[in-house]
Amino acid sequence: MNPYFVGLLVPIAVSLLLQKRRKVEKKRGVPVDVGGEPGYAIRNHRFERPVETHWEGVNTLAELFEHACKEYLYMPLLGTRKLISREIESSPDGRSFEKLHLGEYEWKCYAEAFKSVCNFSSGLVNLGRQDNERVAIFAETQAEWQIALQACFRQNITVVTIYSSLGEEALCHSLNETEVTTVICGRKELKKLIDIGWQLDTVKRVIYINEEGISAEVSIAQNSTSWSVKSFEEVGKLGAEAPVDANMPLPSDVAVIMYTSGSTGLPKGVMMTHRNVLATLSAVMTIVPELGKKDIYMAYLPLAHILELAAETLMAAVGASIGYGSALTLTDTSSKIKKGTLGDASALRPTLMTAVPAILDRVRDGVRKKVDAKGGVAKKLFDIGYSRRLAAINGSWLGAWGVEKLLWDRLVFTKVRAILGGNIRFVLSGGAPLSGDTQRFINICLGMFKSRILIGLCNFRAPIGQGYGLTETCAGGTFSEYDDTSVGRVGAPLPCSYIKLIDWAEGGYLTTDSPMPRGEIVIGGPNVTKGYFKNEAKTSEVYKDDERGLRWFYSGDIGRFHPDGCLEIIDRKKDIVKLQHGEYVSLGKVEAALAMSPYVENIMIHADPFHSYCVALVVAAQNELERWALQQGLAYTDFADLCQKHEAVVEVLESLTKAAKQARLEKFETPAKVKLIPDPWTPESGLVTSALKLKREVIRKTFEDDLAQLYA
């Protein structure tokens, strides 16, 4: 036979065999008989019992950090970009924006970081802190945050974590409820503390992280309060001059009281022990391949969120490097980056990062808008490359050829990957459900192909996986494995957890449902936390210990198990509203579908039980709506005026209706009326949490009059 045909047919035959193998679903989770309330339970397919520690002889977070610092000594650990200048730029409409000119990353190695931790730890003791007094960290994500956290652990000090965007009422509640005596903060947070200082009952000491312009706030705090006010550096120097022996914690000691960002009402403080957090870290070690000292992690999400705290703690444990940034400086085109200055991702070139869906949606929309704006040959190439890579992911041999892979990488996807630095090998999405559309888009654009069997054939590795967990479970629950290219699911149970579905008859979700069991998600394992601080009533409502001593958390989320043991989140108890004629509307499901409209920056669906239809508040995407208005020749004075125009409202409503049809929503799920909002919903405005989840009740009250008009 002609060698040419042999060379052609062999890869095709092997590819077809691989496709056949793919059809046999890999078991990622398997049924398990566990105690507690009856339900349908699944465990990780590789572990009979929940794991608690991956590191021999390590049982607390303090031991884990010390172990890593001694092993990786001179490897870079904490990286911070040098601030060259701050500049104020004005837009044509008269608004002012701060832009940052940032330099390269400057690094502190493991040995230096450990020394800083020991010094700061001793400094806290020398300041006069007494046993059982708690320390709050109320600051933006940065290296000092991590140093302070580890320093507190070395003295068995419980850390109270507070979002830097928290409002005055919630901030005051958090500090007073936990009787915090020492607060570590930045400039913006110090100003907030001063404003509510007269309401704080127990605060004695404030330690500020030095940054430009903070001297004014320091002076006010020193002159108008009774607090002892010292800089971060002063406390470290105090400890260096008078070292104090470590007072290491036990696994059962509370490491962190983490205040949720509070999507409803005042935030609740979740008590996490060292054992709880360590269980989640140990489980992730078994899922993400080859974690180690070659990895560089992009740190920019709030460290007061368990997703970021767990991720950074794990990175430090495996010898990786952590480079700090912010959501406003993440990419070259981020809002606070001065033109011509590299964004954090470009400067750091990370291999790993975590993200919340809102961030990934922005990346997707940014790429699509840039491609559409170029048009012509560039858009055609992108569309063809996208479809070819999709074919490869779906198992088609036509999309799997190595030469073609290299071609599309060079022409299209290398440029897209450069948005996040070019070296990303894995992204974990958490904090909220990620749409299947965004997950598939990011997988295709950032995905990597690995040679397999033959040079001409490649195996796809999904660079983005979804995880599911809660503050109450230390972010542990489920996790997508790197070779799972499906979308819309959150993976199989992490090895630290059992996941159980229990019947919710009222909502129509039963474990006997076909073709997949459905019900409320209950998580059990060593990662399930102690409960809510000083809130026994709420703790007893959602936490249960079974007859075997295993602790379970009732999430309120509704899920279903796929045949391979992977979980899909399909609803939430609190998000389901019954309309006037008895139809149920799942607000989160509808919002996720309608967010696909190009005119939607953010959206909240509102359903009233006394009406037969729902309505929508839409934060309009300014660029898209203004582009449409220009094409229509529609006159307006500013964006707020455009959002009031009847023609604009009709255009957005038609777009939402189209998105609803594409998602196969029912007529009663499609909003009948819409109100366009010109101003973004941000954590600073109090309308969304720091994880960018909607604060429904706050939004409802804020736009109460608008909602009333929509129902009039």
From TrEMBL:
Enzyme class label: ligase
GO cellular component terms, A-Z: endoplasmic reticulum; membrane
Documented EC number(s): 6.2.1.12
Protein's UniProt keywords contain Endoplasmic reticulum: no
Residue ranges of coiled coil: none
Annotated InterPro entries: AMP-binding_CS (IPR020845), AMP-dep_synth/lig_dom (IPR000873), ANL_N_sf (IPR042099)
Residues of the AMP-dependent synthetase/ligase domain: 99-533
Matching Pfam families: AMP-binding (PF00501)
Reaction(s) the record says it catalyses: a long-chain fatty acid + ATP + CoA = a long-chain fatty acyl-CoA + AMP + diphosphate; (E)-4-coumarate + ATP + CoA = (E)-4-coumaroyl-CoA + AMP + diphosphate; (E)-4-coumaroyl-AMP + CoA = (E)-4-coumaroyl-CoA + AMP + H(+); (E)-4-coumarate + ATP + H(+) = (E)-4-coumaroyl-AMP + diphosphate
GO molecular function, one term: long-chain fatty acid-CoA ligase activity
Cofactor: Mg(2+)
One record GO biological process: phenylpropanoid metabolic process
Keyword Oxidoreductase found: no
Gene3D superfamilies documented for this protein: N-terminal domain of ligase-like
UniProt keyword annotations, A-Z: ATP-binding, Ligase, Nucleotide-binding
Similarity-based family: Belongs to the ATP-dependent AMP-binding enzyme family.
Protein name: 4-coumarate--CoA ligase
Organism the protein comes from: Triticum turgidum subsp. durum (Durum wheat)
